[in-house]
Amino acid sequence: MAITDIDRYAHLTEADVDALGAELDAIRRDIEESRGEADARYIRRAIAIQRGLAVGGRAMLFASNKKPAWAAGTVMLGLAKIIENMELGHNVMHGQWDWMNDPEIHSSSWEWDTTCPSSQWKHSHNFIHHKYTNIVGMDDDVGYGILRVTRDQPWEWWNIGNPVYNLVLGTFFEYGVALHHVETEKVRKREKSLREVGRDLRVIGRKVGKQAAKDYLIFPALSGPNWKHTIAANVTANFIRNYWTYAVIFCGHFPDGAEKFTVQEYENEDQARWYLRQMLGSANFRAGTLMRFMSGNLSHQIEHHLFPDLPSNRYEEIGVRVRELCDKYDLPYTTGTLWHQYMLTFRTIAKLALPNALLSASADDAPETASELRFNIREGMQSGFASDAQTGSRRGLRTALRELRESKVKVA
Predict the structure, then answer these.
(1) pTM
(2) At what angle do helices 227-253 and 338-351 cross, to 10 degrees?
(3) Do 65 and 229 touch, CB atoms closer than 8 A?
(4) Which residues is 24 bridged to in the sheet?
(5) Do the Cβ atoms of 207 and 115 come closer than 8 Å?
(6) For residue 148, how many other CB atoms are within 10 A of its CB?
(7) Cα dihedral angle (122, 301, 96, 39), rounded to 10 degrees?
(8) Those residues with Cβ within 8 angstroms of residue 131's Cβ, 6 or more apart along the chain or in another chain
(9) How far is C-alpha 319 from the geometric centre of its chain's CA atoms?
């Protein structure tokens, strides 16, 4: 089962959680008060780079019958689409740059270069996902309505196709995101009417039509006799963007350590516990300057979930302070290489194609599914920290998880 008591799972007292929340509030205030011209230059420079790549790529494709021009144009266009999708569209529509009062770089006016209508995305992502992050039954991003990613999702016969659905979703990720607002889970449970579905699909259809006309009609037509090569380049560029976006998103949400939560946990939640849920329900991957930029700084998924409306270029700075808080409160800071995080994610997707009866470990203590019941906590330690008798240091969740792993090795 998912986590029902987040304080107990995190080995924090009520006072600990409140103190953690206050320190995270302080980080928010510091960043808000220090936003300024350097941040504005960053986003304007990012827009200039993206537009330069897009124009250069489109120009190259006028000679797309020549292989070097086709390859260069396709790569440039793919990179432009990634930057527009990740660093610009995603972050601008989160309101990260609204403080600039620039109508061109504002969440209310930005329409991104993908098939998902911005109006629908801002509801399904900004509101639903970020408010109910990893709450099973409330956050539709837990499996995107087609993947089984936690044992809290009852196994059904069609889940056997989990790895196949994963491949299809990655290939056509922009369409998966577009259809996300349809809320297939609610449709299956008959909680959403076909009339509502039809209304959503009409909005999506208009956006898909505009994207298809741009990529597969207008620009190919402009390239004259090379139109077939240009269509192939545009298809390839969209696949490049789709696979990269899919990998970044999945590595931030589904590796081991990105925990799931119950509705009961949410019912007693305040701001401090919302922060704590974001910290325990998200995962990072290690990245240098270029990879951070190309991922929209979502290599810092933990920081993004804590502060989704703060400028993405500040996440690296915020991450230093969040790590310090994790050390102070003995909380895990889930991270790893991109490849490592993806392989953990794929392992979960592959094994949860099978029913629980064929899986090892319990529904309370598996790599992808855990609850506070995974710990055999002694009397008097259930509600907070204990201290190491020799060093006096705190013994929180990070220590508890390490000791749990060590105990399993001894038993084995």
Answers:
(1) 0.94
(2) 80
(3) yes
(4) none
(5) yes
(6) 26
(7) -160
(8) none
(9) 16
Cβ contact 129:115 at 8 Å: no
Q: Which residue has the tokens 């922060």?
A: 275
Q: What percent of the chain has pLDDT over 90?
A: 84
Supply 67's token pair. Answer: 């292989």
Contact 174, 115 (CB under 8 A): yes
User: CB neighbours of 400 closer than 8 A, spacing ≥ 6?
Assistant: 11, 375, 377
- Find where tokens 């090892």 sit: 360
The tokens 């794929």 sit on which residue? 346
Question: Which of the four pLDDT bands, split at 50, 70 and 90, describes residue 391?
Answer: low
Find where tokens 């409306």 sit: 309
Q: Which of 144, 122, 83, 139 is nearest to 312 (CA)?
A: 83
What sign results for the dihedral spanned by CA atoms 408, 252, 13, 388?
positive
d(CA 404, CA 332) in angstroms, rounded, equals 14
Question: 151: which residues sit within 8 A by CB, 6+ positions away?
Answer: 352, 356, 359, 363, 366, 368, 369
Q: How would you class 182 by CB atoms within 10 Å of its CB: exposed for 0-12, middle for 13-18, buried for 19 or more?
A: buried
Q: Which residue has the higher pLDDT, 375 or 103?
A: 103
Tokens at 351, concatenated:
């094994």
> How far from 205 is each of 23, 117, 185, 200, CA to CA, in Å?
45, 9, 20, 9
The pair of structure tokens assigned to 347 is: 């392992």
Helix (H) or strand (E) holding 48: helix 37-60
User: Is the Cβ–Cβ distance between 114 and 177 less than 8 Å?
Assistant: yes
For 330-334, what is the mean pLDDT?
97
Written as six digits, the tokens of 258 are 């990105």
pLDDT score of 175: 95
The DSSP symbol for 377 reads P
- The one-letter amino acid code at 111 reads E
